[in-house]
User: What shape does this take?
Amino acid sequence: MSAISTAVFFHAHPDDEALLTAGTMAMLAAQGHRVVLVVATAGERGLADLAPGEALGEARMSELYRSAALLGCARVVKLGYADSGLGSAGGVADDRPDDAFIDADTEEAAQRLAAVLKEESADLVTIYDPAGGYGHPDHVQVHRVGRRAAEIAGTPIVLEATVDRDLLLRALRLAGRFYTFPPEFDLRTFERAYSPGEAITHRVSVRRFARQKRASMAAHASQATGGDGDRTLGMMLKIPGPLYRLIFGTEWYVRRDVPLGTRLKHPFDIPPRA
Assistant: This one.
């Protein structure tokens, strides 16, 4: 592990960092590493009590800066694309703007991100798995753009932020006995989401940083409610502290250039030779 390294966390929208990588970000910052947060869009088409558009985008970026400060980030970068939104069936929205991230030229977008990676001399960049986690089109684009950017910049470590699908399904079925999920929640979507346990190479314990992770989630107040009531983020924030640390105390990543079955505990761990 390098004494001081730089990790760039690439996300699609504000609040994605809170859900998937906040604990790792806080841990690395506490260990003295430089942590940089990059978002492709301002999330201006997300579901919230504010009407979609510029005002929501400004609000969500303000929330992102607060989250980044709580996690110890040294820098926040917005690539400047428009939020692609979601279609009625969860796919690509028909009414998306002309500069939607999903429609961006992959090479051009990768060059934008690669410029940040080069400027930072990044040792590591996180993206999403090929399915984009739960399948949002902008998350799928993060995978494509991020992987190509790492090639251009020569960033040596590429980690796909994900969730252990096997554990997730068991936890959600158990939680369903005690909690009423929000209207937009559909357990069936998670049967194809994220990555199976056998594919995961990094299981990072972040229980010591659960307070920062929870504060990062809370910073994104616009995403806690919207529509008919609490959304998934709002529901997560209601989980009692000890149970929260148990549920959110691990963050998962896939590194494709190491042997299948590798089990590492830190983003900068050196994998065994194939």
User: Anything to note?
Assistant: The radius of gyration is 17 Å. The beta strands are 6-11, 34-41, 75-81, 124-128, 157-162, 202-205, 225-226, 229-230, 250-254. The domain at 6-254 is CATH 3.40.50.10320 (Rossmann fold). Residues 54-71 form the longest helix (18 residues).
